[in-house]
Design goal:
215 residues; alpha+beta; 10-stranded mixed β-sheet; 6 helices; 10 strands; globular
Amino acid sequence: MDVKWSSVFPPSVRISGHGIELREWSDDDVTELVALYDDPEMARWTPVASPFDTGAALAYLFEARTGKAREHKMQLAVTTDGVRPLGEVLLFRSEADARDVELAYGIGAEHRGQGLAGRAVRLIAAHAARELRPRRVVLRIDPGNAASEGVARSCGFALTADPPVLRVSRGREVSLRTWARTRTGDFGRSAANGHVTREREGGGPGLSAGSAAGA
């Protein structure tokens, strides 16, 4: 059975737990978005534009809003105070199998080493498991990205025997391995530690499908 996405895309959403709050992007975040993504590690492991300037940030926000409107993906800023973006986490449809939900993330260079990626992955994975009840929640990671593989392991994901997923990033083909958690794991217990607020007003934006950067 395919995943049912309609419950995941309210006008606005904030998800809190594990000492962080995930929120949607707004046009006021353009400067912070540039600071997060105009970074060599982001360029190496994610498909975002490089260099990532104001024009790229505005295009990125537009793409994120379009993806949400089409119920294809949700991109949320990672914060510790509900205000300042420290990174981003994405939840989107798996192109390989409609029964799966895929996650991706990126943490700004200034904010790495604080466990933000792991906390964001646990929180959004719990949300996905509760709202969508997918067969699996998956991460697709470049085998050279040791930091991202470490985050996957710390969050209880395991490397699968799925064939490599080939994607094109800035004109080059990359081969990604699939890491997975089934919904029979502890995401349900993690969800109990989170609080979701669905608001009537709000914007949208974020990243795109692919690898992850930062921890």
